[in-house]
Design a protein that fits this description.
single chain; four-stranded parallel beta sheet; 10 strands; globular
Length: 296
């Protein structure tokens, strides 16, 4: 049990995420013929946007006396949960699919997390985490499917509004399980940007959101066949599909080769492990230019 001073410290604690820069990408701007900004979530303490929502959830369950976090993850969510756990002084177990890369394992070890590898894809790790969370005092920290995670992720939009000073013409983001999309939609509703289109990107073979949009219902993929195995979920969050009825969401899918080529062309990086949100000004509408941006 927490004593009074510990409980007060938790209640007064600041968010675990930082306000990230919003910078113009001149390469993307040249390709689109208009100004394109990148919200650089890769500079978060954990290297991705995940700390916004997961950090928020961890802080809330810590206040209620959680004794141990357990987080199913393909990578970024686990790092966020482990970082939050270390800052909150609570043990954590991260459940990963088998085959996780050594850099990820080293990062989790540095954060003090216990690591358990189960199954080939995130969905199998998720089932194990749910089972482990039945232990008294243990709390499951989902990778993306929780209202408090969406609320935390929505802070991105408030920062965009503060920095831009005006609404963008379109927001471009990636979809794995749908937590970023649900958070951005929540934030857009809070700031009155419901009419701003969202382009939601996936890679073929990890496109559970696109298939759900096409079918009008949740679809479970038989397997994740995209090379981005750790970033995809066989079934997208139900909330992500609900968002398509509340905002204009344009679902697009690219092949792995196109995604890799775009990373090398526009960012000069060998791998993209973070969620960046792109925006273009309101004077530019969704049109033929989008194909260049969709490959980012």
């Amino acid at each position: 049990m927490m004593d009074g001073s510990q409980k007060k410290a938790l209640e007064e604690q600041r968010p675990l995420h930082i306000v990230t820069p919003l910078l113009e990408s001149w390469k993307l701007s040249m390709a689109a013929g208009t100004t394109v900004f990148l919200k650089l979530e890769n500079v978060q303490p954990t290297g991705s946007f995940k700390i916004r929502g997961i950090g928020r959830l961890c802080q809330e369950v810590a206040k209620k006396g959680c004794k141990h976090f357990v987080c199913p993850s393909g990578g970024n969510a686990g790092v966020a949960a482990a970082y939050a756990a270390r800052n909150l002084g609570i043990p954590t177990t991260v459940v990963l699919p088998k085959g996780a890369n050594s850099t990820l394992l080293q990062r989790l070890e540095r954060e003090g997390a216990e690591v358990l590898m189960v199954g080939k894809v995130w969905d199998e790790a998720n089932l194990k985490a749910q089972e482990m969370a039945k232990t008294d005092g243990w709390v499951n920290i989902p990778s993306f499917d929780h209202p408090m995670i969406w609320e935390g992720n929505g802070s991105i939009v408030h920062e965009l509004k503060d920095t831009l000073g005006t609404r963008p013409g379109v927001i471009i983001l990636s979809v794995g399980g749908g937590g970023l999309l649900a958070g951005v939609v929540a934030g857009m509703k809070q700031v009155g940007w419901q009419d701003v289109p969202i382009i939601a990107m996936e890679t073929r073979g990890a496109d559970s959101f696109n298939q759900a949009v096409q079918a009008g219902r949740l679809v479970t993929l038989p397997d994740i066949t995209s090379m981005a195995k750790s970033l995809g979920a066989k079934t997208v969050a139900a909330r992500a599909l609900e968002c398509t009825r509340e905002c204009q969401i344009i679902s697009e899918v690219v092949d792995d080769e196109e995604a890799v080529e775009a990373i090398e062309r526009f960012l000069g990086l060998p791998d993209s492990g973070f969620g960046a949100v792109s925006t273009v000004p309101p004077s530019y509408q969704y049109g033929p230019w989008h194909k260049e941006l969709l490959r980012t």
